[in-house]
Amino acid sequence: MARVRPIGRARAVATVRGPEAALDSVTVSHPALGLAPLDQNAGLPAAAARLRAAKGRLGTRALEIALERDPTIRVHNDDDGVRLLLRDTEILVDQLAESLATGSVAAIRSWSEQASVIYRRRRVPMDNVIALCEGLREAAQAVLTPAERPAADAALDSAIERFRWQRRIAGDARKRNRILQLIYKGA
To answer: What number does CATH give the domain 45-170?
Structure first.
């Protein structure tokens, strides 16, 4: 015997068989796990496969474009820092590919929120990361068809929007006050 009872917004079907009752939710895979993962074939899986196949080449070209447009990236980062940015562009390409495959900007948006903390810890200005995203936008044109570019642009715009928000919080957009910086460090 099955009873249907509302649980919040979701409808759940509880199959009652003795003291243990199984719960099958309509909207989530398991109530404790949250929403089911996004379908990797819902968006543009062929474009995502091409991006992943050219990940190294796209990452290198995106960093080259960013360095051409903003030469201060070399001032802010030493050789190890530039190598880390190159590694990060490959991760950015993966996140862009996942966003294209699922047809949702959630993957790249979530990654940009999490990565901004790491960039802040490494003292990489968010403007440099935004330049990497813009470089990837230009480099990806060699791999994506004109019909696929708006989806990639939307995903990169979402990431850039989050990096701009984090730039505002981190204070990257303005010159830091040395006295306040000394106080915050506690030195």
So the answer is: 1.10.490.20
